[in-house]
Structure to design on (437 residues):
């Protein structure tokens, strides 16, 4: 990393400030390099993507679409974006792809702009049941001023109650029926609910942010063939690219496609972080080659981890369904709204295991939930196997069940992670560590 040195007129105070900033960045890198990153919404980028994200593109503008720009100097980026659109169409088997979005939430805002007008009705999964905040009045749904009705929820199956949700859709007659979650263990029973939405003329939108890589890798479900008109997603979760988003559609209607493009620019983006878009294109190229294996191994690791946690004595949700079919595992650590999830997350961080507390069905306090939401996609990316996940589960038990000193466990965490420093499922995996200094 760059070292700070005094330039013309730099004061000692400001040089120290710069050093403090760099020190915090280095410390954050060391936390993940030496620890276990298990937050379900995160991932790491490949060396090739890292080079692109740090390139000159970071400060450039390219409003519009390839060949139709408001700035000069965009010919090379036109090549990049055009290749990216073609790759996204191929990887996601989508007739339409827009790769400009700067995040999954921005993708959702753009999609809702294209699909609905203020005051229209929308149905979605409640945040209490695992829906994303952008599906709520506090997020994109409220920003678009849509009238929200949430689906009845099946806690045992961790999915919408199909019959009750279909009844809700028929009664509400929403403009948009939105599916997908932030807590996402199993494929959504989409076909049945999409049929109900079509009966009342609703557009079907699927937020695949968390599971987009699993979908593209053929290991989860296929929303665009199961009734979704539109799929949004993030490019930095199970799809292992830089921060950003996707907007994808099964429609070949050119007027609808133009509406989607317009919803992104000028709708919700001006210039759209060209370095991230270019990195996304490289990640698409890598996913085309390695994505199926990565998605398959991620699901296998999650299932092995969930079973190992249960064997250790943890309360792992959805036992009757085999715990998970995604990258996520949910565990309960105490009574509802007890804050037990927050306490567990802090103890694990003290041991070098980075997770996040999460509301489980029945919790009402986001900052004092009973559970953890755990993800294995980053560990899979650096070569963890199902056998490694069993060892990770033992470390959880040592901290949370057997009450060992987290500082002692942290040494074993560092020893395990030392053997997993090279990023996999990418072009130049042996060139450099996945965790730069």
């Amino acid at each position: 990393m760059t070292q700070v040195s005094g330039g013309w007129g730099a004061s000692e105070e400001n040089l120290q400030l710069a050093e403090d900033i760099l020190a915090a960045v280095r410390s954050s890198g060391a936390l993940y390099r030496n620890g276990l990153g298990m937050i379900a919404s995160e991932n790491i980028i490949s060396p090739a993507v890292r080079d692109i994200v740090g390139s000159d593109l970071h400060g450039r503008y390219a409003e519009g679409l390839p060949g139709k720009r408001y700035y000069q100097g965009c010919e090379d980026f036109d090549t990049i974006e055009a290749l990216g659109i073609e790759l996204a169409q191929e990887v996601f088997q989508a007739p339409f792809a827009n790769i400009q979005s700067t995040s999954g939430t921005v993708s959702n805002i753009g999609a809702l702009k294209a699909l609905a007008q203020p005051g229209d009705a929308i149905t979605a999964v409640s945040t209490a049941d695992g829906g994303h905040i952008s599906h709520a009045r506090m997020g994109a749904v409220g920003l678009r001023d849509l009238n929200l009705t949430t689906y009845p929820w099946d806690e045992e199956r961790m999915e919408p109650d199909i019959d009750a949700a279909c009844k809700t859709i028929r009664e509400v007659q929403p403009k948009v029926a939105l599916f997908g979650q932030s807590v996402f263990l199993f494929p959504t029973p989409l076909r049945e609910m999409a049929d109900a939405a079509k009966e009342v003329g609703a557009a079907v939108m699927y937020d695949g942010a968390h599971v987009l890589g699993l979908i593209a890798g053929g290991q989860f479900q296929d929303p665009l063939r199961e009734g979704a008109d539109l799929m949004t997603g993030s490019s930095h979760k199970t799809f292992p690219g830089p921060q950003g988003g996707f907007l994808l559609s099964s429609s070949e209607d050119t007027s609808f496609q133009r509406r989607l493009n317009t919803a992104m620019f000028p709708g919700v983006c001006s210039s759209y972080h060209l370095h991230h878009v270019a990195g996304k294109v490289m990640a698409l190229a890598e996913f085309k080659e390695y994505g199926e294996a990565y998605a398959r191994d991620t699901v296998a690791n999650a299932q092995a981890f969930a079973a190992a946690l249960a064997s250790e004595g943890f309360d792992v949700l959805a036992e009757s369904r085999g715990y998970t079919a995604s990258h996520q595992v949910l565990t309960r650590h105490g009574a509802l709204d007890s804050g037990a999830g927050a306490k567990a997350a802090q103890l694990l961080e003290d041991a070098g295991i980075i997770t996040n507390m999460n509301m489980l069905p029945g919790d009402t306090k986001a900052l004092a939930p009973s559970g953890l939401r755990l993800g294995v996609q980053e560990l899979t990316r650096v070569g963890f196997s199902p056998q490694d996940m069993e060892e990770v589960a033992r470390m959880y038990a040592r901290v949370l069940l057997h009450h060992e000193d987290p500082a002692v466990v942290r040494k074993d965490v560092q020893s395990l992670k030392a053997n997993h420093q090279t990023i996999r499922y990418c072009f130049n995996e042996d060139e450099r560590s996945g965790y730069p200094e």
Remarks:
- The mean pLDDT is 95.
- Residues 51-286 form a domain with the Aspartate Aminotransferase; domain 2 fold (CATH 3.40.640.10).
- The first strand starts at residue 36 and ends at 37.
